[in-house]
Specification:
Elements: E1 2-5, H1 11-18, E2 24-27, E3 42-45, H2 53-57, E4 64-67, H3 77-82, E5 86-88, H4 95-111, H5 113-121, E6 139-143, H6 147-157, E7 162-166, H7 172-178, E8 181-182, H8 185-191, E9 194-197, H9 211-215, E10 221-225, H10 234-243, E11 246-251, E12 271-273, H11 282-302, H12 316-339, E13 344-352, H13 361-372, H14 385-391, E14 395-401, E15 409-416, E16 419-428, E17 431-437, E18 440-445, E19 449-456, H15 461-471, E20 476-483, E21 495-502, H16 508-514, E22 520-526
Helix pairs in contact: 1-11, 4-6, 12-13, 13-14
């Protein structure tokens, strides 16, 4: 067994590798590692080495790539999967470091530590000027309750802060166990003295903190961002810092990075800025190094994949049987996550027809991955889906309907604090298709840019949709309709749904226009194949 370490790693991690009997360990660097690829079984990288198709072509024996860290942007995942190479990372390895840095920024803002230090070192003694504030009794709003957000909560509780959190992908029980009150995002903005961001950048979260959200905050709020710079509209924050609406901000991340030297936000006197170092501690680097070695050993000796970020290899025979339905299960899960509201409680996957008699582990995991993939910082796939669901208190169930005559179909029942969303789908000509939603039959491909609507079955809705989309120069590629079965009662129209496939993206303002019709109860965009 040959393991190639292509980037500097902690001595403790290298020593652990060298303890493996019969293993050849090659410690190299980003400039000189490539000649060793030809006969290596495992490759360990951090962020400097870029593993692309050309790299994989030079490593025909490669079985696994270990990323000592969280992000895997430097690894071409589709190419690795096509080559049968498992890729794994070490999520949460720097969670404590980032959490501690978050608290360090909060304390520094509350007590004006940088300014007081500079003043004192300058020969001044300005005791009255630097009157600070205690964290005790203040409301901390944590946006994103993943690994890092939870570590922040544990530490902030020691300062006797009252903690609220907003995260639509965390179960109520998980928050309760942490002693945190789950609230909606607007409530968090209105009640928090400190707002701390710990979530991934998605189309929904990019620019999450902008002029509109800042306007909802308390006067004198303080904002901390140790997650991603794209979460904040820097121009809006800069204006709020200048006006005093935001008393101070602690930023470890920017967009772009590094920020330009003349970026106006860097001139704000109430800004505390650090150069993306929240996760950079000696302890964190050692932890991720040791963890990736432990994971590699477990996989290479026992075949157990921990924290894998791409699909593990399966035999051609197995995949031939379930392969088309894996994509269906994942897209149904994504659709459910887009149209449902509330905090997750459980996911039930039901199989009908021949697939009910197959090994459905891959189908179950794909469905769960689809539900969870919307909004989690961690890459979710068929390998880590159940682990992530368990960490968030989401119950996963399976049911097999083996009655004779059933067509091959997958059903998903997604239960949240707001109710149950149910979907069914099938595979037709090797393409996943939606069959029904919430008991209403509606048939459409699960691909492209979709608008999903719930409405009352009354005249004028279809015309309204066409008018709004036409007015906004949005072309309709496909329009699927369905309504509940049963006679309509006067004053109580039947429920109906519509799935509209359109060319191009749909702005939030267009959805708002669709909802101006009183019969339209819901209008959201869905990209099940994204």
């Amino acid at each position: 067994m040959k393991v190639l370490v292509a980037e500097p790693m902690s001595p403790a991690a290298v020593a652990l590798l060298q303890q493996q009997a019969g293993w050849e360990i090659v410690v190299s660097n980003p400039k000189e590692y490539e000649p060793h690829l030809a006969d290596c079984d495992a490759l360990i990288v951090r962020s400097a080495v870029k593993v692309k198709t050309e790299t994989l072509a030079k490593a025909p024996k490669l079985r696994v790539i270990g990323r000592a860290g969280v992000g895997v942007d430097n690894v071409d995942l589709p190419a690795a999967t096509a080559a049968g190479v498992l890729v794994m990372n070490t999520p949460g390895g720097n969670a404590v470091s980032v959490a501690e840095h978050t608290l360090a920024l909060m304390l520094s803002l509350a007590r004006m530590v940088p300014e007081a230090s500079a003043s004192t070192r300058g020969g001044k003694w300005e005791k009255k000027k630097f009157l600070g504030n205690e964290l005790r009794g203040k409301v901390l709003g944590v946006v994103g309750l993943g690994n890092i957000g939870q570590e922040v909560v544990r530490r902030a509780r020691g300062f006797e802060m009252r903690i609220i959190a907003s995260d639509p992908f965390v179960a109520q029980q998980t928050a309760s166990d942490l002693g945190v009150t789950l609230v909606d995002f607007d409530t968090l903005l209105k009640e928090s003295d400190y707002v701390s961001l710990h979530l991934a950048v998605t189309p929904e979260t990019k620019g999450l903190i902008g002029a509109e959200s800042i306007a909802k905050m308390k006067d004198g709020v303080r904002i901390i961002n140790c997650a991603r710079g794209e979460l904040i509209e820097q121009s809006a924050l800069c204006a709020a810092l200048a006006s005093g609406k935001v008393a101070g901000a602690g930023l470890d991340v920017f967009s772009p990075e590094p920020p330009a030297a003349d970026d106006p936000i860097l001139a704000a006197p109430n800004l505390l800025a650090t150069p993306h170092i929240a996760g950079s501690t000696e302890e964190a680097q050692e932890i991720v190094g040791i963890r990736i070695v432990e994971q590699l050993v477990e996989y290479l000796t026992n075949g157990v994949a921990i924290n894998a970020v791409n699909m593990p290899a399966i035999t051609p025979e197995q995949y031939k049987a379930v392969g088309p339905f894996v994509e269906l299960a994942e897209r149904l899960g994504k659709f459910a996550a887009h149209v449902a509201t509330g905090n997750p409680a459980s996911i039930k996957v039901i199989y009908q027809g021949r697939i009910a008699e197959m090994n459905t582990n891959l189908l179950r995991n794909a469905a769960v991955a689809g539900v969870l993939s919307r909004g989690l910082a961690t890459r979710v796939n068929v390998v880590n889906a159940l682990q992530l669901a368990g960490q968030r208190g989401v119950v996963v169930e399976e049911k097999r309907d083996t009655r004779a005559g059933q067509s091959d179909q997958i059903l998903i029942e997604y239960v949240t604090s707001d109710g149950t969303t149910s979907l069914s789908g099938t595979v037709l000509f090797d393409k996943p298709r939606l069959s029904s939603i919430d008991g209403i039959a509606v048939e459409t491909p699960l691909e492209g840019n979709l608008i999903y609507m719930r409405n009352y079955d009354v005249p004028g809705v279809i015309g309204h949709v066409g008018t709004v989309l036409g007015r906004n120069s949005i072309n309709i590629a496909n329009f699927s309709l369905g309504r509940e079965i049963g006679p309509a009662v006067e004053g109580k129209p039947l429920r109906a749904v519509a799935v509209v496939e359109v060319d191009g993206d749909v702005a939030v303002s267009v959805l708002d226009e669709l909802k101006e019709n009183p019969a339209v109860r819901l209008a959201v965009t869905v990209q099940p194949a994204a």
